[in-house]
Task: inverse folding
């Protein structure tokens, strides 16, 4: 192992071994990381047809840095190991009274769950979020045991913390 002892390093860019800029520092000292995996997806539906319970797939990309969220599967696939933040928000749409679980799933296993109580023909807001450790190629997705209201813009967001 090598040890580098320096008093000061001055750099505008830090590049990977392939020559791509990994980090840049602007003139005010703000560190930028343009390749950080991050996404936000939501649903846009003019039909008003609910998103059916089960695996939730949101069809409109707001941000998909690195293209790790899939609008065909609803999965985010981790490109690298690390700590990630996720949130899933929206409104449930109940056709019957009862309870509901909204989940964020890691490799199709619930890791965080939000519970709501439903009444017929009523909309209930929900929000669930977590920070989790992922390995390369782990998948994360939202899941619901009740229909999600499509016109209230359900949103699934995630990004690499480090």
Result:
């Amino acid at each position: 192992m090598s040890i580098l002892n320096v008093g000061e390093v001055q750099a505008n860019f830090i590049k990977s071994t392939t020559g791509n800029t990994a980090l840049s520092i602007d003139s005010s000292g703000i560190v930028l990381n343009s390749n950080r995996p991050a996404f936000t997806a939501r649903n846009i539906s003019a039909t008003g047809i609910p998103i059916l319970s089960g695996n939730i797939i949101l069809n409109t990309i707001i941000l998909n840095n690195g293209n790790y969220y899939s609008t065909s599967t609803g999965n985010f696939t981790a490109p690298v190991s690390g700590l990630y933040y996720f949130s899933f928000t929206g409104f449930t749409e109940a056709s019957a009274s009862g309870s509901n679980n909204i989940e964020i799933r890691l490799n199709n296993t619930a890791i965080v769950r939000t519970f709501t109580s439903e009444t017929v023909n009523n909309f209930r807001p929900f929000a669930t979020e977590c920070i989790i450790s992922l390995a390369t190629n782990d998948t994360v997705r939202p899941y619901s045991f009740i229909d999600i209201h499509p016109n209230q813009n359900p949103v699934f967001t995630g990004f690499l913390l480090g």
